[in-house]
Amino acid sequence: MKKIFITIYLILLLSLFFVAYGLFPMTNELFETQTLAYTRQIAKGTFSLVSDRLVYLDDAGRQQALSELQTRFGYPLGLVPMASFPVDPEDREGLMNGLIMDEDDEGYILFQRLGRTDMVLTMGGPFPGSTFFFYGRLFLWGGCILFMVFPALAWTLILNRDMKRIEQAGSRFVAGNLDARVQVPRFSSLAQIASVFNTMAERSKQLLASQKDLTNSVSHEIRTPLSRIQFSLEMVAAWDRLPDREKKYIARIGRDADEIEALVDEMLTYARFEGRQDLGARLQKNDLVSWLGAVAAAERPAGQIDLEFRNRMETCAVVTRFDPVHLGRAFQNLIRNGTRYAASRVRVTLSPGRSGVLVHIDDDGPGIPDEHRCKIFDPFYRMDDSRNRDSGGYGLGLAIVKQIVVWHGGAVSVNDSPLGGARFTVRLNLT
Ligand code: ADP
């Protein structure tokens, strides 16, 4: 907000500066002839009265009369021989013809040839008010610098309010609320952006819905023939007279059919979690410490992998609202991955975070290389095949984890673990 304010404030001041020192002089320049004609009209009477007093006198008389007249004038009068009076070549003709001319080199002066003589009568430079103009300008600029704070501030506040609305709607949308839309006044300068955002959000929602529908219906459609295949395979496998070689093929087809079934189940699960909003009714107040301890204990592997749960919170109970079924599934996925890839140790740690709690799932396995970290939570994303051959997964486990954690208003990330392998961190807010 500070940056926007400073930008707007400087733009306003620079615009004023440009108007005062760019546009005004430019206007004077453009309308020079009209301005001079106007000045001539105003000064005509004064010049003619003074000239009448001086023109028929000799030099000494003129100086004497000029001194007397000077006492009645508020600005300097002068009488200069034409030969020593500096005048622009383009003004010389006008001067010779008796026109009132002006010059603004060292203070503004007006001058006219004195009758048909070779003397020039000058008035001005400095006119009264020159000092006033200086202080007036100082006051004006001081006022502008101070006063411009208010329009700049008002503009900033309005802009900031609308930008915040767009930003908040964007964050809600990214967090899974596909109905998040921006409401800004019709006359806001960001109304166009807000409207584009809303159209984009609506379009994305429709696309996601149709994608979800497609996944659901294809998965359901596959299930029926798949069950028939599995049933037929069981029938054939139960046939005593089947030669061994055929039995082997039948068993292999059976395994493949089971794999397809697992994939379909996983896809249906993912589709169920995608873009889901009705979490409110599922939230329950629970003690996170004992609950997480129980989830970890239930996942304790039978082999040589050592699974440890540590509570680093200051209290031994942290009561907050979450959906135990689905969040349980998320932690299950993370712990199962940990035990699958660990060499010997998996550690689940609950610790205080900046605005909630952090749950680290550490292992001492091969870890996740940097280049995979930003994609690892995408659906169907798996790393090298050699690692996945035995996992039996389809790259949906972490995508499901992310959906569930995001529903809870949290975030999940992956890093290096102090144990040497991967560290998955789930950040949850306490509500
Ligand atoms: P899958 O269901 O196929 O296991 P996931 O979404 O759970 O898919 O994981 C995606 C990929 O991330 C896996 O294929 C695996 O290569 C990698 N991965 C997940 N967890 C770990 C871990 N703890 N250590 C190393 N690699 C992991």
Main sheet: strand order? 6-8-9-11-10
The small-molecule ligands in this entry are: adenosine-5'-diphosphate
Q: Give the N-terminus to C-terminus distance in angstroms.
A: 29 Å
Main beta sheet: strand number and arrangement?
A: 5 strands, mixed
Mean pLDDT: 87
Estimated share of beta-strand residues = 5-15%
Low-confidence stretches: none
Shape: rod-shaped
Question: Tally of extended strands?
Answer: 11
Report the radius of gyration as a whole number of Å: 44 Å
Percent helix, as a range, is: 55-70%
Secondary-structure element sequence? HHHEHEEEHHHHEHEEHEEHHHEE
Instruction: Kindly name the structural category.
Output: alpha+beta
The tally of helices reads 13
Describe the secondary structure blueprint for this structure.
Layout (H helix, E strand, L loop, with lengths): L1 H29 L1 H23 L4 H12 L6 E5 L7 H8 L4 E3 L5 E5 L5 E6 L5 H18 L1 H26 L16 H47 L6 H30 L10 E4 H11 L7 E6 L7 E4 L1 H18 L3 E8 L4 E7 L6 H4 L11 H4 L8 H11 L3 E6 L5 E7 L3
Parallel strand pairs: 6-8
Antiparallel strand pairs: 1-4, 2-3, 3-4, 5-7, 8-9, 9-11, 10-11
Helix pairs in contact: 1-6, 6-7, 7-8, 8-13, 9-10, 10-13
